[in-house]
UniProtKB/TrEMBL annotation:
This is Alpha-1,3-mannosyl-glycoprotein 4-beta-N-acetylglucosaminyltransferase C-like. Pathway: Protein modification; protein glycosylation. It comes from the Eukaryota. Pfam families: MGAT4_cons (PF04666), MGAT4A_C (PF23524). GO terms for biological process: protein N-linked glycosylation. It comes from Podarcis lilfordi (Lilford's wall lizard). InterPro entries: Glyco_transf_54 (IPR006759), MGAT4 (IPR057279), MGAT4_A/B/C_C (IPR056576). GO terms for molecular function: acetylglucosaminyltransferase activity. Residues 326-446 form the MGAT4 A/B/C C-terminal domain. Residues 59-310 form the MGAT4 conserved region domain.
């Protein structure tokens, strides 16, 4: 009997649940490479004995959940699958930790019906379990209502389960290879956990601002997609705003782990959709998410990458009205009241806000408002909101101190977290002025970025 044939008859391969056909083939070829190549023709498929493992499933091994152990720090998985899971991997940065602001941006830019569609999963990737618990406690205090509603989960995993991230070969990413390798593993563990929670998965970073109504916009856009897709980008920055089918997440987890020490995550995510036959990245315009952090995840240097195509307020800007505006606040630079005064689409910025500060809108013609929205602050200046204040409607327009105003004002509602909204389809009375009034001094400036008014048509 030839040597090779004798060797193969004695060689037994047992399929293991974590093995793949590629690994088995490579193992056999490696051993055959040491044999006499002149006798290779005597080897046939009948010479290899495969013992079937009854517990092995090809599809489960290739696409099932990875057996990673997670620990819940807050919340528990929802009992039913929702439309969207929003995943964030967070590593605590000493100089700038914006995770709480990011979570607040997610929830505050959703209406109630949108909140019912989402689950937010925070993967705390700090090596220090004590620090993870402290971060989780901060989230519990600020977002207890969302935790109770089952829409906020906070998890961690064991450091011991990570592959090596030290003494790796420097390749495509220079000195940051240790941090970026760990980041690949962090993302892999996060998406693996989220695989069965919802229909779709959205990747964000822990220093991100969201556009108003982003959930409904994503839902509407996905419904209009006629071609098959793997990834849709709702931002042009790195990992932010990448949307996936949840059914692809276990494959993405394996893909990130396969090349974790070779290729950065943003490249891998691009390669992933290419391997699934989506040639070009599908971008949604305008961008729904903005990067607001200035401290790099990989070092303590200050960097700034922003998306120039991000619009915080998307959708109808209200009806085209004509009006004049004035304020008693000190104005910063060229950010004058006229910038935001209907039909203006700019920004007003006021300083030294007191309990007597106001911003008045005087309409050229009386209007019957059906809906009013006033936005203050911004993604980049989240503290420059009206912290305490309300809106009044005015009548009896007169000339006073060389400008027009109204003699009679009646309050119609308060600002909440820097946002005012009134919707009254039954309103029949006309008004001639609107006035924004502060009720307490604040150390932060006031930035009014949008005043949208919808009126009853005659």
């Amino acid at each position: 009997m030839p040597l090779t044939q004798s060797f193969i008859r004695r060689r037994t391969i047992v399929l293991h649940p974590l093995c793949s056909c590629t690994v088995i083939a490579a193992q056999v070829l490696s051993e055959l490479s040491h044999l006499d190549t002149d006798r290779m023709e005597t080897i046939t498929s009948e010479n290899i004995i495969l013992k079937k493992n009854p517990d092995f499933s090809v599809m489960e091994s290739a696409t099932g959940l990875l057996p990673i152990q997670y620990k819940y720090l807050l919340g528990s998985p929802p009992s039913i699958k929702r439309f969207l899971t929003i995943g964030i991997s967070s590593f605590h940065k000493k100089k700038e930790h914006l995770l709480l602001k990011t979570i607040d941006s997610i929830f505050s830019h959703c209406r109630q019906e949108e909140l019912n569609l989402i689950t937010v999963v925070i993967y705390l990737a700090n090596n220090d379990s004590k620090l993870n618990k402290e971060n989780a406690e901060e989230m519990k205090v600020q977002f207890s209502a969302h935790v109770k509603a089952g829409r906020l989960l906070v998890i961690q995993s064991s450091v011991e389960s990570y592959p090596p991230v030290h003494n790796l070969k420097v390749d495509l990413w220079g000195k940051n290879i240790k941090y970026k390798s760990k980041q690949n593993v962090d993302y892999a563990y996060l998406v693996n956990f989220c695989a069965n929670l919802s229909q779709y998965y959205l990747m964000l970073e822990d220093d991100t601002a969201c556009a108003t109504g982003f959930v409904s916009i994503i839902q509407s856009y996905v419904r209009t997609m006629e071609e098959s897709w793997t990834t849709i980008a709702f931002s042009r920055l790195g990992y932010i705003g990448k949307l996936y089918h949840s059914s692809d997440l276990t494959k993405l987890a394996r893909f990130l782990l396969m090349f974790y020490d070779v290729i950065p995550a943003d490249w891998l995510m691009t390669y992933f959709h290419k391997t699934k036959m989506q040639g070009e990245t599908i971008f949604y315009w305008p961008s729904l998410f903005q990067h607001v952090g200035r401290i790099s995840s990989f070092h303590e240097l200050e960097v700034q990458h922003t998306d120039s195509e991000f619009y915080e307020d998307i959708g109808s800007l209200g009806d085209a009205l004509t009006a004049s505006c004035f304020t008693n606040m000190q104005i910063y630079g060229n950010y004058i009241p006229a910038n935001v005064c209907p039909p203006g689409r700019g920004v007003f910025w006021g300083m030294n806000v007191t309990a007597k500060s106001y911003f008045t809108i005087v309409f050229d013609n009386p209007i019957i408002p059906q809906k009013i929205q006033i936005y203050t602050g911004s993604a980049e200046h989240s503290t420059d909101i009206l912290h305490n204040g309300f809106v009044e409607k005015g009548r009896l327009k007169v000339h006073l101190n060389e400008r027009q105003t109204c003699l009679s004002f009646i309050p119609i509602g308060d600002f909440k977290s820097g946002f005012f909204e009134m919707e009254d389809q039954t309103n029949k009375g006309d008004i001639e002025c609107l006035r924004i009034k502060a009720t307490a001094p604040q150390k932060h400036w006031l930035r009014i970025r949008r005043i949208s008014i919808w009126v009853k048509k005659s």
